Request: fold
Amino acid sequence: SKLTNLGHLEMTWRSRVRFPPLLVRILHKSRLRYYGKPEKKMDMPYQAYFEVADGSGMMSMVLWNSLCPEWYHTMKVGSVLLLEKYAIKTSFPFKTHPAPGDSQMKRFATIEISLNGRDPPTEISIIPEDMVKPEWGLPEVKYRFITRSELEDLPNNHSCDVIGLVTFVGRAERARKREQSEDFWLYRWAHAIDGTSDQPFILELFATSQPDVFERIHPMTYLVCTQMRVIRNLTENPSRTIYLTTSNESQIFITGRWHKGQPYSKDDKVKNFIQWTKSQSESDQIKKTVIGGYYPFPRPPESFLKY
Reply:
């Protein structure tokens, strides 16, 4: 009876110092960001964004500093949270926004929920899924899965989710974040097939905040990648150079304990993919798989004259 909702918060936040408890579901989760600098002495300079929603709409939620190592890995997409003693701040204008699975959902973009370990220390409770009641009106997590045959028609920078059987995974490579920088992005290339096309998904997978998954991607695993972005090299033949890359909100899941209990297991395209894999011969697929090696992509032209 004492709960508030996101829509009411947006209307009343300026006139309050303390806010009633809030019940929300996590729809999206960003990678963990480290913002420490040598000249600034902070114990745990970490930050992570989440997109949370209730029956009134969707809003950003920021997890700060010491709460990150404590809560980041237990706050999963689909988790229901009860929040108390949180703060409300005006939104940071330059953050990325994931593409919502439900395009009709209202987004409250002017403010964000701030969760801190002090001033005041936020109280966070994760509600088990079997205790979540329908009358709370919390939205379900929705996805935007595409098949490989649908990829050809999608525009550059389109956001989507994919599932496929891994047929190739390259070695981990590094790229500088900026010129002359000592910071690097870690990434690897992978191919995954879903039976809808002769061509695989070509995936550029950057190491997100899931090192346990990133290191275990190997041929013959079922790979799910969410919030991927379509990259088309329009200067070349578009159909040959189309690939998908991870975004700030991408999550990666592979065969094993990682798929268990994930909301995407109810998606129709995921179910269709599982049915397709049951019709395949494992020994035939294994013969087509490759692991490791250098993978130049996009491919260079066949001759020097074309450079």
